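sorry to bug you again but im stuck and you know this stuff better than me. what follows is a protein written twice so to speak, once as letters and once as structure tokens for the fold. mainly i need to know what kind of three dimensional shape the backbone takes. anything you notice is useful, everything is just below:
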Amino acid sequence: MGSVKSSFRTARDRALGGLIREIADDAAERSVQQISDRIGNVERILGDQGDAADEVAETIGRTLTRLSAEVNSLAQEVVRLRERLDRAGSPT
């Protein structure tokens, strides 16, 4: 009788152990999927931010280029005006 009880316990423990492992595997798989999804979302967000930063940098670069050209034009005009003032102020 002891061996029947022992066999029953062993069978029961194996069945419960298998069920527990199956439940744990399913839970682990769901957790891994959720974490993978979150990592994918973070990667997408960071990629979008990188793209936006690139666009901002390009816009600032173009603006600085235009501003530099305007400042150079203004400096040339100031030099011409100074020369005209010098000529107008001195009798030749």
User: Anything to note?
Assistant: The chain has a mean pLDDT of 87. Helices lie at 2-89. The CA atoms of residues 33 and 69 lie 54 Å apart. The first helix runs from residue 2 to 89.
